[in-house]
Amino acid sequence: MKIEEYLSSLPRSIMNGDDVELSDDTLREIFRFAEMTKDDIFYHLGCGNSNSIAIASQEFRVERSIGIDNNEEKISQGKKLLAEKHITNGSLRYQDIIDADISDASVILFWFSDEKTIEKMISKFQSLRPGCKIITIWGPLTGCMPNKVDFPYILNVTPFKKAESLREQMLVIFDTDCIDFSVAWEYADRYSKAISSRNFENDRFLTILQTLVIWINAKNLGIACGEDIPEPVKSYIGILKTFFNIEVEHLLDH
């Protein structure tokens, strides 16, 4: 099957990130990357288990931390956690992020893959006060040049800088003149570790998929190193097809 068919066969909750909880160490890395301080008002859109709210409040001592999620059960569990930890500067809202008032935010963690959600939220972000930091994982906000990158963490700051092309975005994100297999693998591996499932086989499979996605996108945009398909890329394309019945070669522009 083509990779698009494979991805569409996965549970929707996996594809939109609902079932992926970032580890505490990853959250700390993200907060250090964003240089959060006691003066910040932090929002986590799609906060899940609320650990991010507890860490932002207790360890980074932000002025306020607010988590928003449309999963009522997770919000209920999160409120119990905050109460147990006696956190008074953190709160949770059971709400759709598109309807949420985030006008006082200075730092926002936003990790969504649904294009319609991203499009609506970008419009919302553009109305925020200058200097508001929006942290994403894996990719920048659509059509925007990142202000800071420590892959897979990407920071956009309001007002946004417009990207002239996806090619321009990728070169800034990967901080290189061209992308070869080793660069693609390194960055895919960083992503896998950041969202680690603690299952080595699953993480390895994710790294292979993301490596191929990065390299193929680079090839199609004319920023892959060299004209030929690298042998490791050929090997992994073959492995996916032979052992997993997943075909990705059609994604290449010929």
UniProtKB/TrEMBL annotation:
MF GO annotations: protein-lysine N-methyltransferase activity
Keywords: Methyltransferase, S-adenosyl-L-methionine, Transferase
Stored InterPro entries: FAM173A/B, SAM-dependent_MTases_sf
Domain of life of the native organism: Archaea
One record GO biological process: methylation
Gene3D superfamilies associated with the record: Vaccinia Virus protein VP39
Name of the protein described by the UniProt record: Uncharacterized protein
Organism annotation: Candidatus Nitrosotalea okcheonensis
High-level lineage: Archaea, Nitrososphaerota, Nitrososphaeria, Nitrosotaleales, Nitrosotaleaceae
